[in-house]
Design brief:
2 domains, about 270 residues, homodimer, mainly alpha
């Protein structure tokens, strides 16, 4: 997978996008709307990224968590900053479209919504191959990072967030998994707080800020040609897949998650 | 959770959205673009839905799978149909933004991309509370539905799809999980095909069509006031949560997935 792009490549894309937006703008002003339909020429994708301040995005995403959950929070944390920094076409996407990602998709506990929302924002501004590399790296980073970060705990203690619901230093843990269910369950187990508690909500708000800020750090690196994917899947993945393929009928497919994060008990026959 | 809406409610929203689009269109034609930024007034969310033909969407999503993977396929299967049926504002969202969802998010095997993409499309046209109910129902339906559907297998056999890469009747299985990893692994185990095989790709293409078509069926029901959420979480969820809460330190939080779909081995102490 191509995981790096030169600064020249990225700026060429950005310039092409900006040019396309200008063409679109002219098209818009010439077309006459009819039948209740505005005539907006689609902006060329990927949309033009502009370097953002990760700390500003951390605070935005933390605030937006309380307005619309983790996926909306992370997505809008990035996109609203791009609306302010770039303007068109970032105001064309309604951030509410990411509400569904909250709680791992309608509360089902699958993909962490902060990752889902950040990934959607990344995918507005980066081509398919490079977005896959960046999103994959974000997922890997997520599984090994203790949340909430020291920065977010410090922001809360010092009342630096836009929304200050708690100044407690919250327990940090790395879940080893990108799944909401695993992430929240382990944090509740380790912290002693219930999933329904205000502290768990604040933990997820801080995490939402942390993930959106990390996404922006990676986008900034990508925009200057220094992003590099470094995550390596845990040894359980190639270890299990080494035997469990279609030849023996119990297939381990489509996974980069640590197998032990769900299948702890299976490891007695190997480790 | 509010899981039903009256036809009057939905049509009121649709009319309000359409009016907002008209206002936006006027705004667009009056504003002068400057600095490479087009001046497009954001359309009011949720965007106006128009009843779609599930079979048309099934075929579109199947085709788009081969252009951009499962999440893009499902999302664009619905959104491209809405661009044709409604036009503005559905052409404002670049469907490429859902590329990342392929293979359960950058190949990580988390939330099935066909569900993720369909959920994003649903969330363009339905308010937060009702979208959560519809997406939750789609997730529940997914876990209990054998894929590929008889319809998709028949379309393939009769060369009805827009893209005809295989006319084989493919093995059907219900994975009990919304996770790509589980869904693909079990299908490969039961069918004997490798994850890297053309047959597995065609299985996921048909599944993508099936999920997008189901999403549209539910949106059509919602638009006529007859949608009703019926999915009930498997007994393992309340069963496990009955004991595993913060009181005993091994918390089961944020989940509607069948616990046994990952933690098979834990059940010896209960069932």
């Amino acid at each position: 997978m191509k995981s790096q792009i030169t600064r020249k490549d990225f700026l060429t894309t950005a310039v092409r996008s900006a040019a396309a937006v200008s063409v679109g703008a002219v098209g818009v002003s010439l077309l006459t709307p009819s039948g209740g339909q505005a005539a907006t020429t689609p902006a060329t994708w990927p949309w033009p990224y502009k370097r953002l301040d990760p700390e500003d995005v951390r605070k935005r995403a933390h605030k937006f968590y309380y307005e619309g959950g983790c996926a909306y929070g992370a997505f809008n944390g990035v996109v609203a900053a791009l609306v302010d920094a770039v303007g068109e076409p970032f105001n064309r996407v309604p951030p509410q479209m990411m509400y569904y990602g909250g709680g791992g998709a309608a509360g089902w506990g699958t993909l962490c919504g902060a990752v889902n929302g950040s990934a959607a924002a990344i995918s507005l501004v980066v081509d398919r191959s490079n977005a896959s590399a960046i999103v994959g790296e974000l997922l890997g980073w997520y599984t090994t990072t203790p949340f909430p970060s020291d920065i977010s705990n410090d922001y809360a203690r010092a009342h630096v967030f836009f929304v200050n619901k708690s100044d407690k230093i919250l327990k940090q843990n790395a879940s080893g998994s990108p799944l909401c269910h695993t992430s929240v369950s382990l944090w509740c187990s380790e912290s002693g707080y219930k999933a329904s508690s205000a502290e768990r909500a604040e933990r997820c708000a801080r995490l939402t800020g942390d993930v959106a800020a990390k996404a922006v750090q990676m986008l900034n690196d990508f925009s200057t040609g220094v992003f590099k994917a470094t995550f390596v899947a845990p040894r359980s993945v190639p270890g299990c897949q080494g035997c469990h393929d279609s030849a023996i009928g119990n297939v381990v497919a489509s996974v980069k998650m640590d197998c032990q994060s769900c299948h702890q008990e299976n490891f007695q026959h190997l480790y």
